[in-house]
Amino acid sequence: MFFRCTGGTTELKPSTFVEWLHDALEGDDNASCKHIIRFKTRKDFTACIHHMKRRSKEWPRLNNVQPLKIIRALSCTLQTTSQPIPFPFIESIEADTQIQVHAPKAVTAIQPSSGKTTNETPNIPWGIKHIRAPQAWAKSKGERIRIGVIDTGADFTHPDLRHCLSYGINLLNRHMMPNDDNGHGTHIAGTIAASSRQRGIIGVAPQAMIHPVKAFDHQGSAFVSDIINGIDWCVKNQIHIINMSFGMKTYSRALESAVRNAYQAGVIVVASSGNEGKQATIDYPARLRQVIAVGATTRKGQIASFSNNSKNIDIYAPGEKIYSTWLRGKYHELSGTSMATSHVTGVIALMLSRRPGLKPLQIKSLIKKNAKLILKSGKGGLGIKEIHALRALSSVAKGSP
Q: Which fold has domain 101-397?
């Protein structure tokens, strides 16, 4: 629910707002009372931050308020209220809702030796072969491309990921590394950029660099404010691509604002569409127009039964029984639009490595134009396009953005 702030008098200043905020803060960290307060201008936002710092020793509860600089906002736990805030410089307030990683539809534990490999030969999972990524590696392997994976973190000890994992951030505990305690983020990282000389696996872009952004806890849950902070970190650290394998049903103006800022900074945002098997609808943030929305396909090149299906999906990719890295050096087979999204992120890394500077809209256009038409869906005959790494990279190599 949004509380648009239209009332108030011009005498109400940022210092007065900080006093109001202190009185309105909830005593404990009640998730149902978390909100995002957005300011109309950068000047007013900065002034409020200044006043908060000045009063923080006197009012220690203000230290629990989290700035969201990328969208000129504050995340805080407020007492339940249905009244607009009477400050003219406040744009709006919305609930800081929870968001989940797109949970896989199947989980199969697999030992490293069972991936149809020998001790000398690494395994190329079926999805990576299917999109013709190995044929593209002669032209690009994702060199010099930085990918922010906003997820549950990554396993820095996994032998297939050691070469590709770079510095990241743990938004749940900034004093700790973004280590994965769930597995989802590690699986995504493997499909994007794993590399092994022996019995492990190879990802779509095996020379790309992954920067894990841990915004989700061990249960795969985060708040919208955590995602916004993750996007902010990626923009500040000049990340080229952001992988978002998660979603929610409700629209968030604050999240859209953060995504728009990343888009305007030239960052390509890729997101999964959801695993409910719904027709004509997909989750946020994939539904936002600044995002490349991804659906999942099967080995037979058909839309997976669990994948949401909508004209708002930009591209489909393999998402059924995807074999990738897991915690403690292991491997798992998962199904979901999350897995499809990591394939698309990898292909974009191949493209950007070959031609740096491509804008988000150019990338979206190129992967759609050079995709593989796999089937018609529905009575109206909606064309479904599956990503094709070799074609997409060839179009970039020919110099036709």
A: Rossmann fold (3.40.50)
Q: For 191-206, what is each residue's pLDDT tens digit?
A: 999 998 778 999 999 9
The full 3-state SS of the chain, as one line of letters, equals: CEEECCCCCCCCCHHHHHHHHHHHECCCCCHHHEEEEEECCHHHHHHHHHHHHHHCCCCHHHHHCEEEHHHCEEEEEECCCCCCCCCCCEEEEEECCEEEECCCCEEEEECHHHCCCCCCCCECCHHHHHCCHHHHCCCCCCCCCEEEEEECCECCCCCCCCCCECCCEECCCCCCCCECCCCHHHHHHHHHHCCCCCCCECCCCCCCEEEEEECCCCCCEEEHHHHHHHHHHHHHCCCCEEEECEEECCCCHHHHHHHHHHHHCCCEEEEECCCCCCECCCCECCCCCCEEEEEEECCCCCECCCCCECCCCCEEEECCCEEEECHHHCEEEEECHHHHHHHHHHHHHHHHHHCCCCCHHHHHHHHHHCCEEEEEECCCCEEEEECCHHHHHHHHHCCCC
pLDDT tens digit sequence for 238-288:
999 999 999 999 999 999 999 999 999 999 999 999 999 998 899 999 999
- Give the pTM: 0.91
Place of tokens 């769930």: 182
As annotated, the active-site residues are 151, 184, 338
Domain boundaries, given as residue ranges, for the chain: 2-96, 101-397
What's the length of the chain?
401
